[in-house]
Design a protein that fits this description.
Blueprint (H helix, E strand, L loop, with lengths): L1 H9 L3 H14 L11 H34 L2 E2 L4 E2 L4 E3 L3 E4 L4 E2 L4 E3 L8 E4 L4 E2 L4 E3 L3 E4 L4 E2 L4 E3 L8 H5 L12 E3 L4 E2 L4 E2 L4 E2 L4 E2 L4 E2 L7 E5 L2 E6 L17 E2 L1
Parallel strand pairs: 1-4, 2-5, 3-6, 4-7, 5-8, 6-9, 7-10, 8-11, 9-12, 10-13, 11-14, 12-15, 13-16, 14-17, 15-18, 17-19
Antiparallel strand pairs: 19-20, 20-21
Length: 252
Amino acid sequence: MNSFILKIKRGETPFFRALRRMAKAILSPSAPRLPGWLKPPFRAIYEFYFLLMGLWNNFLNLVWRQFLFQARCASFGKGVVVDRLPFVSGHVEIHIGDHVWIGGHLNVSSARILDRPVLILRDHAEISWNVSIAVNKEVIIEEYARVSYDCRISDSDGHPREADLRAQNQPVRLRDIRPVRIGKYAWIGNGTHIMKGVTIGEGAVIGANSVVISDIPPYCLAMGNPAEVLLRNFGRPSKKKPGETAPEESHI
């Protein structure tokens, strides 16, 4: 069978090339080009489809998902928007502030090490899609902080550093569990990993796909693996008056 499949992939003879074309047509079908006169009605159907899906999703959020998530949280503020139902495993205690926005596929997990791991999302915090948060002690995301999509946040490595203890499936040591805090107004770029013990300062910006292993001062731009501060006095709140020039950002 393997030899037969390989001959089809290689198209060694007209017969096998015909089989390859047939398999491609079945596995990767391509629709014929749409005549111009059919484009307007199909465009209307396209827009209606996504409108209908959006309305259905909002309906499920309103009558089902948000109530389920509220029941899982220790405290839950007003004006919270949950785009999809977060998956929570373990005994983590979750506190949600007012007007928090949570995107889809949020995964929150906790291990058995400590009695009371805590996740806190303060007022106006935003968590985008496909974010994973591992909480063994404490993770705090402060007011107006934004975590972009595909980010990972963890207050421990999830396993011992010693090879023999990992092989025995021993729990992580207490010394290797350190809280994570993301300061108010901070922006965490997509694909970023924030490791244990890190504090992201107020208003700091972390570039996409960074790995943050140490504290980032307030109002700095940091990026890289490991993340390094590239600019200081970056993105400070605007206090200039009309006609004035904002202070320049300083390089380190």
